[in-house]
Amino acid sequence: MIYLDNAATTSPKPEIVIKEVNNALRKYSANPGRGGHTPSIQAARAVYQTRMLAKELFHAAAQENVIFTSGCTQSLNTVIKGVLKPGDHVVISSMEHNAVVRPLYRLKQKGLIDYSTADVIIGDDDATLNAFRKAINAKTRMIICTHASNVFGTRLPVERICALAHSYGILFCLDAAQSAGFLDIDIAENGYDFVCCPGHKGLYGPTGIGLLLIHSNQLLDTLTEGGTGSDSVNPVMPDYYPDRLESGTLNIPGICGLGAGIRFIDRYGIEKLRRHEYRLMKMLYQGLQSVKNIRLYTDEPDILHSVPVISFNIDEVESEKVAAYLNNKGIAVRAGLHCAPSAHRMMGTLDSGTVRIAPSVFTNEKDIQILMIALKKFSYFS
Ligand code: PMP
User: Fold this and answer.
1) Which of 196, 287, 292, 298 could make an S-S bridge to 379, C-beta 3.0–4.6 Å?
2) pLDDT (tens digit, 9 = 90+) per residue, 302-327?
3) Ligand 1 in contact with 150 (CB < 6 A)?
4) Which pTM was predicted?
5) Which alpha helices (DSSP H) does the chain contain, by range?
6) Is the CB of 72 under 6 A from ligand 1?
7) Pick the CATH number of 269-381 from 3.30.420.40, 3.40.50.300, 3.40.50.2300, 3.90.1150.10
């Protein structure tokens, strides 16, 4: 199977990730920080190593600022529900994923908060910034913004949006689901208060692991409460990180696998990885121009404006039909709304959805050529 759904989760996983998950299950099936025995200490050491790798990758201030979660959805929920108080207002972009929209909508439904959506104007960062500025009001407590659209690959001017938020004394939360491990994210330099990311996409870890990086000195309210192995006599959750936000037994195989994933991209070189994926997506983009009745919703991929994600449709054909055809030809792509309906509303693709292609470090030219041949055949007979 040619797997081109890497914006959902990367596949295959690097061999060292598979080995490390296996190794963790064999060697670290003990509860870190809960016992003085050797297996517990070894497990704690393994967790610490991944925490340090994540700290360095994102330039976090300290390893305590790195929180392990089950994925980007949990990271975002932790920030949203941990920061917001009744009466607060939030600004989000029109490209946000349901992992942002649904928790906000739920809080709004309960009458607790309100939020506004700033339209992303593709190709005009000044206009996008202006839309954010206009959406801010006296009650705005936080801006949440995706680094890049998971549907169209469009990069948002998040450094400028973060600076805008801070100029109003507003917190900024970055959804790095499509950029972590691919674009440089420097928390120290950019001052993002919160960075939420999956461990299973560009960081090449297994599914079921994610990260929340905290830069703000804000003490988040807890999403879940439970045992931390620290301050156990106290019925209140610790007021220090990471313990405050990591109750219950940690996902040690996931954490170890994530550590191996970060080591993998470090060794491969993020710059080299970027060049590889952009080259393939440019090749695909140029090839797609010659497909009959193609409707491309993404500009030619380039580092300043996009991540390597291409969305398209063929004529009036439902995106699911194209994906099903490709699946029969041994090519895995994603169709539909990609959990980001407002991005589609903006693009006019809410009814049809789009076919989405996203490569990984393991995608090669031949994969793209086979995809092109299949699409040409499909469009010829449709
Ligand atoms: N935000 C964006 C932009 C995403 O693309 C995704 C995953 N599709 C998420 C959040 C949620 O990530 P996870 O699956 O790790 O919970």
Assistant:
1) 292
2) 989 999 999 999 988 999 999 999 99
3) yes
4) 0.97
5) 15-27, 38-58, 72-83, 98-109, 125-135, 158-167, 187-190, 252-268, 270-288, 319-328, 341-347, 365-381
6) yes
7) 3.90.1150.10
